[in-house]
Specification:
There is one protein chain. This protein has 15 helices and no strands. The chain has a domain of 170 residues: MetI-like fold (Orthogonal Bundle). The radius of gyration is 26 Å and the shape is globular. 77% of the residues lie in helices and 0% in strands. The chain is mainly α. The longest helix is centred in the last third of the chain and has 36 residues.
Length: 295
């Protein structure tokens, strides 16, 4: 009687080539690092060096102390926070309807939102100008009906118009992750909650919202970073008195040739973006740990 020989388990391919990867790791890292150094780190180093012109950070003290810079920084933060909040509310509401309120064409509409992601931001600003501008379709119709000599709507060329345009552009960045998160929710959870007498607001608050929180934070953080650095919408709309940090950088560098001031504002803008990214990552990690503790 022959003894059964236990079959030997073959080593996975990844384990077999691991020594080769370790041997070639430094060589594989050099090309991408060199590319990053040329295309990213070197321009940033030039901007930082230009911003440090003068003794003891004199350029920073001079630029950061001006009302122009403080106004630009305040406008940047206000517009970014307002647009991100609008994107979160609108994206969450649209995702709820598209995911849990069945109607013909819901899938087509959900897929159609991807079109906004692929469009340049200035095209949306141009479309809003055609609709709500001083000579836009809505103002012309209202003037024709009311007999007014001046356009009744004058919000587009203001901070509210910039927020509206950015909300239109960046809401899909919240909507798409939410739809993906909603697709993972077990319908039985909603059915059980409904059978126990829970109404729609309570189901949304206690069942849907906790499951969608990571996607909501991820989409919101992306919108926040994009709106902080948005240039095309603010530039194209030309809102009166609304100067953001990207627009200030453009004005100082391209129109006034004041490269030191432009580089100081650019360094602050980069620092603000990195700070917001770090805060959102901490927030997302905290929510993930909280959810893991509930399981």
């Amino acid at each position: 009687m022959t003894e059964a020989v236990a079959p030997t388990r073959a080593a996975p391919p990844s384990a077999a080539i691991r020594p080769l990867r370790e041997l070639l790791a430094p060589g594989w890292l050099l090309p991408p690092l060199a590319l990053l150094a040329v295309l990213y780190f070197y321009p940033l180093a030039l901007i930082l060096a230009q911003s440090l012109q003068g003794p003891s950070l004199g350029a920073y003290a001079q630029v950061l102390g001006t009302a122009m810079f403080r106004n630009a920084a305040l406008n940047t933060v206000e517009i970014a926070l307002s647009a991100t909040a609008c994107c979160l509310v609108l994206g969450f509401g649209l995702a709820l309807v598209l995911a849990f309120v069945p109607f013909p064409g819901a899938h087509t509409i959900a897929r159609g939102t991807d079109v906004f992601i692929s469009l340049p931001t200035f095209l949306v600003a141009l479309a809003l100008t055609f609709l709500y501008g001083s000579a836009g379709m809505v103002n012309e119709a209202l003037m024709r009906v009311s007999g007014a000599s001046l356009p009744p709507l004058d919000f587009l060329y203001s901070q509210a118009g910039v927020v509206l345009a950015e909300t239109t552009v960046y809401t899909p960045f919240v909507l798409r992750p939410l739809l993906a998160a909603f697709s993972l929710i077990d319908p039985a959870q909603i059915e059980v909650a409904s059978s126990l007498g829970a109404r729609a607001p309570r189901i949304v608050r206690q069942v849907i919202l906790p499951a969608a929180m990571p996607a909501l934070l991820a989409g919101g953080s992306l919108c926040l970073l994009l709106t902080v650095n948005e240039f095309g919408i603010v530039f194209f709309i030309g809102a009166k008195g609304v100067i953001t940090l990207p627009l200030l950088i453009y004005d100082k560098a391209i129109q006034e040739f004041d490269y030191t001031t432009a580089c100081v504002a650019a360094v602050v803008n980069v620092g603000l973006s990195v700070l917001l990214y770090a805060l959102t990552r901490v927030l997302v990690s905290g929510v993930g740990s909280w959810r893991a503790g509930l399981v």
